[in-house]
Design goal:
The protein has a six-stranded parallel sheet with strand order 3-2-1-4-5-6, sandwiched between helices. A six-stranded parallel sheet has the order 14-13-12-15-16-17, sandwiched between helices. Strands 7-8-11-9-10 form a five-stranded antiparallel sheet. Helix 1 crosses helix 14 and helix 6 packs across helix 14. By secondary structure, it is α/β, with parallel strands linked by helices. Helices cover 28% and strands 25% of the residues. It is built from 15 helices and 22 strands. The chain starts with a strand and ends with a helix.
Length: 457
C-alpha cells in the first residue's frame, strides 16, 4: 500500500513514524527543509521538500499510484486544496484535517465527497468526545461506548483510594491479589481484556493476578458497570456535577459542548480577549473566568475544593500535568490532561494524572481505520497502553465464521471482548461462534490490527 502524507507537523510526523513500522510505501511532503531534516535519519521513507499543493510535487510522489493521501498541514484550506488535487491526479482515498465544525454536518458531507475528499478529520471534536466520555464518571480513567450497550472502561487498581473520601472512609478493592480465573468463577458479566502494569501492556489469561496500581481494561455491559465499580472499591466516588477546565482552547470549547448539560462548567483563561470570544462560543450554562491556572486563591474562590472533575487543556503539557497532580492532592477525584508530547505520556501515567488525551493518537486512530481491508467501523489507539481497539464487522465466509473463537487461531496478544448481534451487545467466550453481520470489539496488544485483516475480510 502506498501512502502520501502532506504536512510534517505534529500529526503528520506521528503518522509517518507509526505507518513506517507497517512496511508501507510512505512519502512525506512539507515545504520546511528543517522539519524533514529532523526525520531524515530516523525514518526510512521518501521525503520531498515541496509545497503540499504543488502538482509537480504530487506527481513526483507518485500520486497516480497512491492508495491513501493524508493532508494534515496546519492550514485547513491547504488540506482541502491538496486533497482535491490528489484525487484528480489519481489518489484512491483522501483525508483532510479541518478546523471548521460545520463541514462535518451530514448535509455537507456530499459536497466534499463530490470534490474528491473521502474523509474529513477534526481532531478537536474526536478528542472532545473522549473527554466527555471520561468526564461522565469520576471513578474510571477511560470510558468508550459501543453499540448494543457494550462499554470498555479502564480503572486504576488502588488498594486504598489515593484520595480519602470526604467522610474519611476508604473502600476495599475486592479484585487485587486474585486471579482472573478466581474472579470469573463468581459469574460476573465482564471480561478483563488487558492490564497496563509498570509500563507494559498485558493481554491476560486465567492465572494472571490483578495487582496494586494496575490499570485494568474491562469489557462489560452498561447494565453491569456498577459491579465493576463496587469490586474496584469505587463506591464512594461522587457523581460529576462540577467541572473546571483550565485553558480556553478550541478543544476546551468542543469539550464544553460535548459534556452533559446537567454539569456545571467553568473555564479559566488568562487572555481577556479570548475570554470574550469564549463567552460567545460556549454554552449558556458555562462560566468563563479571566485568570491564571496557578492562581490558587482564584481557583479556591471559584469552587476548586468542591469540584468532582478538573480538566487541563492548555497548550503547555507540563502545566497540564502539574495542575492535575495538584488537583488530585486537593481532593479532586477526576482529572483529565491534554498531553501532546508522546515522551511525557508514561510520566503523566506514573504521576497518576488520570485520563490523558493526545490529539495525535486520536487523529491517527481515525486515519488507521482506512488502511484496513476488513470492514471496520471504529478504531481507537489507546493513549496510555500499547494497544488498539477496533470494531470489526464480520463478513460472510470470513475465517472467523468457520469455527468457534477458541479454534480460529487468533494471535496470542488479541482479545475479542464482546460482540453486537441484532443490535444487542453481549460478551464472548471461547465457545462463541461468530456469524456474518456480527460486529465484534477486538482488543489488540503488540500486534498491529492489520494482522487481523485475514481473519475478518
Amino acid at each position: 500500500m502506498k501512502i502520501v502524507i502532506a504536512g510534517a507537523g505534529a500529526v503528520g510526523t506521528h503518522l509517518a513514524r507509526m505507518l513506517s513500522k507497517e512496511n508501507l510505501d510512505i512519502v512525506l511532503i512539507d515545504p520546511s527543509e528543517e522539519r524533514l531534516a529532523k526525520l531524515n535519519n530516523e525514518l526510512d521513507i521518501m521525503m520531498l521538500v515541496q509545497p503540499t499543493t504543488s502538482i509537480h510535487a504530487l506527481k513526483q510522489a507518485g500520486i497516480e499510484d497512491t492508495d491513501l493521501f493524508i493532508a494534515v498541514t496546519p492550514q485547513e484550506s491547504e488540506n482541502l486544496a491538496c486533497c482535491m488535487l490528489a484525487h484528480q491526479l489519481g489518489a484512491k482515498q483522501t483525508v483532510a484535517r479541518i478546523d471548521n465544525y460545520e463541514y462535518l454536518d451530514e448535509e455537507n458531507s456530499k459536497l466534499f465527497k463530490d470534490a474528491g475528499i473521502s474523509s474529513l478529520i477534526y481532531p478537536e471534536k474526536l478528542a472532545a468526545q473522549e473527554i466527555a466520555g471520561s468526564a461522565s464518571y469520576s471513578w474510571v480513567r477511560q470510558w468508550w461506548d459501543f453499540d448494543g450497550g457494550l462499554v470498555l472502561v479502564s480503572v486504576k487498581m488502588h488498594r486504598k483510594s489515593p484520595v480519602a473520601n470526604r467522610d474519611g472512609s476508604q473502600e476495599p478493592n475486592l479484585l487485587i491479589g486474585r486471579t482472573l480465573r478466581e474472579i470469573g468463577q463468581e459469574g460476573h458479566h465482564f471480561h478483563v481484556v488487558a492490564i497496563k502494569r509498570n509500563g507494559d501492556t498485558i493481554i491476560p489469561y486465567g492465572e494472571e493476578k490483578i495487582l496494586p496500581n494496575d490499570l485494568v481494561f474491562f469489557m462489560t455491559l452498561k447494565s453491569e458497570i456498577n459491579v465493576i465499580r463496587h469490586l474496584s472499591g469505587k463506591d464512594n466516588y461522587p457523581a460529576i456535577k462540577h467541572i473546571m477546565i483550565l485553558g480556553g482552547s478550541k478543544l476546551s470549547v468542543r469539550a464544553d459542548w460535548a459534556i452533559n448539560d446537567n454539569v456545571s462548567v467553568k473555564i479559566i483563561e488568562p487572555d481577556l480577549e479570548r475570554c470574550e470570544q469564549l463567552g460567545k462560543l460556549t454554552r449558556e450554562r458555562t462560566l468563563v473566568i479571566n485568570g491564571e491556572g496557578y492562581d490558587v486563591e482564584l481557583l479556591k474562590d471559584e469552587g476548586y475544593n468542591n469540584l468532582e472533575a478538573f480538566i487541563a487543556l492548555t497548550p503547555n503539557d507540563e502545566e497540564n500535568i502539574l495542575s492535575c497532580v495538584a488537583a488530585r492532592r486537593n481532593g479532586v477525584r477526576k482529572t483529565i490532561a491534554q498531553v501532546e508530547n508522546l515522551a511525557y505520556l508514561d510520566m503523566a501515567e506514573a504521576l497518576d494524572v488520570g485520563t490523558i488525551i493526545n490529539k495525535k493518537k486520536v487523529a491517527a486512530s481515525h486515519i488507521y481505520r482506512m488502511l484496513l481491508k476488513a470492514d471496520v467501523d471504529n478504531v481507537k489507539m489507546l493513549t496510555v497502553a500499547d494497544a488498539d481497539v477496533a470494531e470489526f464487522i464480520v463478513k460472510e465466509g470470513s475465517k472467523v465464521t468457520k469455527q468457534p473463537i477458541r479454534d480460529i487461531g487468533i494471535p496470542h496478544d488479541v482479545n475479542i471482548g464482546g460482540m453486537i448481534r441484532g443490535g444487542k451487545g453481549s460478551l464472548v467466550t471461547g465457545n462463541t461462534q461468530l456469524k456474518a453481520g456480527d460486529k465484534v470489539v477486538v482488543f489488540c496488544g503488540g500486534s498491529t490490527l492489520k494482522k487481523l485483516d485475514r481473519y475478518f475480510k
